[in-house]
């Protein structure tokens, strides 16, 4: 297959390497808003490069991978759909709820497959948690705990365009909660705080967030996030049920240390970022996308899936700002 890759920043350059490692990929063509960056990545990996998105889409590609900054996602996804090219798009598909709803409508009305990049769906631990819930071995699920804790904050310039901690960071938790439990969020109560750099407050954001979600079964989900988890990048989930409990992320890279006598777990080292934490999952999701593009499997994460996670993030941000519980019926796009 001949794959087009739009955006070769950190995640895009990684995707280029991953695509080259997959047997089904014969050629990768790259482009970027910074032409010199595309040329450099192309030269480093022996790839073709296109002058711009128009040239990329017209270069005879069989599938498109969108890994640009967020403002580029929606325009390129529209163009991929219009051109009939199967498209993989990193989250979020758009920066606003309204545009996400529009794109979900376009995608559902089209026969062109779209796969949204929520890589946790391809992590072995989360997939095993999903199987444990689906099998009934845990009985009814009464509590889920999910957290996304960054070791260090992103650059100050990123925060004003990030959408805020719930849309940018916890949206992964909101998606994986739906994936693991198979249930929908019906209400949220969220809060946040700042103790770190002033640029979070200046952007109207928070550096630490927390939310309680209620699912349609009555299951309670406790979600937390922070940009300042000095122990390391910490992404975990605990699923607690009537008959048992399971956890994802409790391995030797766990960014915690025990203060109990005789306990030397975890051995370390912790993962410094999401790239290291989910390296196998990123590879697996692109391999799955090639199966989607070839028409062998349906999309494992649709634009509507992305919309539902985004709606929960919207509800959490509204709850944080207005300091009240928010029902998901208040948020468009159901």
Could you state the CATH homologous superfamily of the largest domain?
A: Dihydrodipicolinate Reductase, domain 2
Sheet bearing the most strands, described? 7 strands, mixed
CATH class of the largest domain: Alpha Beta
- Structural shape: globular
* N/C terminus separation: 36 Å
Question: Over all CA atoms, what is the radius of gyration?
Answer: 20 Å
Give a quick rundown of the structure:
By secondary structure, the protein is of the alpha/beta class.
Report on this model:
With 334 residues, the protein is α/β, with parallel strands linked by helices. It has two domains: 2-119 and 283-300, 3-Layer(aba) Sandwich (Rossmann fold), CATH 3.40.50; 121-273 and 309-330, Dihydrodipicolinate Reductase, domain 2 (2-Layer Sandwich), CATH 3.30.360.10. It has 13 helices and 13 strands. A seven-stranded mixed β-sheet has the order 12-11-7-10-9-8-13. Strands 3-2-1-4-5-6 form a six-stranded parallel β-sheet, with helices on both faces. The model has no long low-confidence stretch (mean pLDDT 96).
């Amino acid at each position: 297959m001949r794959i087009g890759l739009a955006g070769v920043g950190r995640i895009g350059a990684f995707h280029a390497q991953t695509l080259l490692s997959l047997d089904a990929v014969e050629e990768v063509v790259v482009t970027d808003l910074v032409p010199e960056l595309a040329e450099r990545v192309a030269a480093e990996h022996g790839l073709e490069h296109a002058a711009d998105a128009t040239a990329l889409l017209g270069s005879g590609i069989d599938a498109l991978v969108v890994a640009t900054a967020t403002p580029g996602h929606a325009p390129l996804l529209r163009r991929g759909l219009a051109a009939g090219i199967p498209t993989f798009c990193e989250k979020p598909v758009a920066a606003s709820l309204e545009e996400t709803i529009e794109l979900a409508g376009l995608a559902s009305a089209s026969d062109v497959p779209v796969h949204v990049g929520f890589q946790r769906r391809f992590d072995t631990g989360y997939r095993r948690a999903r199987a444990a819930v689906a099998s009934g071995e845990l009985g009814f699920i009464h509590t889920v705990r999910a957290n996304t804790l960054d070791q260090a904050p992103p650059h100050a310039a990123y925060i004003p365009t990030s959408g805020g901690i719930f849309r940018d960071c916890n949206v992964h938790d909101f998606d994986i909660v739906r994936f693991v439990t198979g249930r929908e969020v019906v209400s949220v109560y969220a809060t946040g705080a700042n103790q770190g750099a002033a640029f979070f407050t200046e952007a109207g954001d928070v550096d630490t967030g927390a939310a309680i979600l209620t699912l349609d079964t009555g299951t309670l989900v406790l979600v937390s996030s922070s940009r300042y988890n000095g122990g390391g990048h910490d992404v975990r989930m605990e699923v607690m049920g009537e008959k048992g409990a399971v956890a994802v992320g409790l391995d030797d890279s766990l960014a915690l240390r025990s203060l109990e006598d005789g306990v030397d777990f975890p051995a370390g080292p912790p993962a410094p970022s999401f790239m290291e934490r989910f390296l196998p999952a990123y590879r697996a999701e692109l391999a799955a996308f090639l199966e989607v593009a070839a028409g062998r499997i349906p999309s494992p994460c649709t634009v509507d899936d992305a919309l539902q996670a985004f709606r929960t993030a919207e509800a959490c941000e509204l709850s944080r700002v207005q300091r009240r519980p928010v029902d998901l019926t208040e948020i468009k796009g159901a």
